[in-house]
Amino acid sequence: MGRFIKVIFVLMSVAMASQFSVFVQAADNEEIKVLREEIKNLRNVYENKISELESKIGQIEGQRLASGGEHQIPATSMRSIKSNASNPSIGMVLNGKFNKYSVDGEAEVAGFALGHEGERKGAGFAVDHTELNFSSNVDDKFYGSSTFAIAEHDGETEVELEEAYIQTLPGFLADGFTLKVGRAFWTIGYLNEHHSHADDFADRPLPYRAILDGGYNDDGFEITYVVPSDFYTEVGIGLFRGNDTPFRGPDGKGYGGRSMFARVGGDIGANQSWRAGVYKLTGESVSGRTGGHGDAVTFIGDTDLQILDLRYTLAPTGNAREKEIIFQHETFWREEDGTYEDTEETPGAGAVNVNWARDKVGSYTQLIYKFNPRWRIGLRYSELQPPPAPAALAGSHIDGGGFTPEMHSVMTDWTNSEFSRVRLQFNSAELAAGQNDSQFILQYIMSIGAHGAHKY
Fold first, then answer.
1. Is there a contact between 213 and 118 (Cβ–Cβ < 8 Å)?
2. Every domain of the chain and the residues it spans
3. How many angstroms separate the CA atoms of 158 and 161, rounded?
């Protein structure tokens, strides 16, 4: 009997264990099902979130391209400045040169009176502009930047405020609009927006030197609008004090310069891009403030400057870091209507005042070839076409005598990193009749700290 009870107990235990196992297995299956459902839900949530973030990235990149942002990285690019409102980005550019010329003394340019920045730099060793810059997002609505240039003029070291401006960030104004206020190198032609250390040659082409004294740098504001379209389209207007070349002092209201521009561009396939623009800068010189040649030349009157530019880039391998070809051209037309006075090198005694209604034309074309990530070569041709001067100014600084100043340049540079570059350049210049000047320039450009990426 006892054995029978034990057998029954064992059988009941086995049955209960079997039922419990089935129960446990069912419970496990249900839990696994729940867990799988949670994983599926999480996967859907994160896939949707990733798609949303990728869409936002695409929108931001599209807006950057629409505002003229770089879709390729040229050899002149620096790293981008990040938002850092509490700790502004600080950078310095060291720019040194060794210049050797075959023509001694001051080199004249027939038909033009050059300012300090347009004149040929002194021979021998020299430290060119040293730039100190500060930049940062002010908050979520504004960005601010300032640049100080330390340079030597006439044997004296001077500190100049080159730029000090604020600029609105996306979201403050209506979509596509940007406002820039302060002192800056404004949107007048291609090179004018860039600091000279970002140029592809050691010196600026003749039109910038003779017509803009290196670049138009003035106080004022500029508002631009990027048109929503399938290709890049931007228009803008500006109002300035009129206190820099090609003007010689502001009017009584303090806003003697006005500008307008329009430019378009786009991509050709995956490895080509282009941009073309037309610009107009107009204003009045009323103060009679002089410029260039020891305060010898003064112009009072109206000035209209039109510029046409074209830029094309090609990355043969599809990667601009490896190889890149850049074609660039600008043409200047400067119309003047007023009175010129030349108190130096003018036949006869004393100052001579004459009415002047003439056009001055200049242009340059350059081609840059980067054949590997560190080495580039470049060719440039620039010329000026001064108008004939009145008889009263024959032999003066602004009498071209029918001569066309021109310069041929060839350069090669080595870029060790985005912060260091060494360049060797040769110029063959004929800027006045009988003045053939062979110029050799050795330059280094070193950047310390943070620097914003240069524009396209």
1. yes
2. 67-82+91-128+163-449
3. 10
The one-letter amino acid code at 432 reads A
399 membership: H or E segment, kind and range: none
Q: Is 293 left (phi over 0), alpha (psi -120 to 50) or beta?
A: left
Structure tokens belonging to residue 422: 């060494």
Strands 156-168 and 142-153: antiparallel
Containing H/E element for 30? helix 2-66
Q: Distance between alpha carbon 252 and the CA centroid of its chain, in Å? A: 32
Digit-by-digit pLDDT tens for the chain (456 residues) are: 445 444 444 445 545 445 545 444 555 577 777 777 777 666 666 666 676 676 666 666 655 555 544 444 444 333 344 445 557 889 999 999 999 999 987 778 888 888 888 888 889 998 888 999 999 999 999 999 999 999 877 777 889 999 999 999 999 999 999 999 999 999 999 999 999 999 999 999 999 999 999 999 999 999 999 999 888 999 999 999 998 988 877 766 678 899 999 999 999 998 999 999 999 999 987 755 444 444 567 778 889 999 999 999 999 999 999 999 999 999 999 998 888 776 665 444 445 667 766 688 999 999 999 999 999 999 999 999 988 877 777 777 777 778 899 999 999 999 999 899 999 999 999 998 888 999 999 999 999 987 766 677
Evaluate whether the domain defined by 67-82+91-128+163-449 bears CATH number 2.40.160: yes
Q: How far apart are CA 167 and CA 178, in angstroms?
A: 7
- Joined together, the tokens standing for residue 361 give 């034309």
**Closest to 168 in 3D by CA, of 158, 154, 181, 178:** 178
Q: Could you tell me which residues come within 8 angstroms of residue 291 by beta carbon, excluding any fewer than 6 positions away?
A: 113, 115, 213, 245, 248, 297
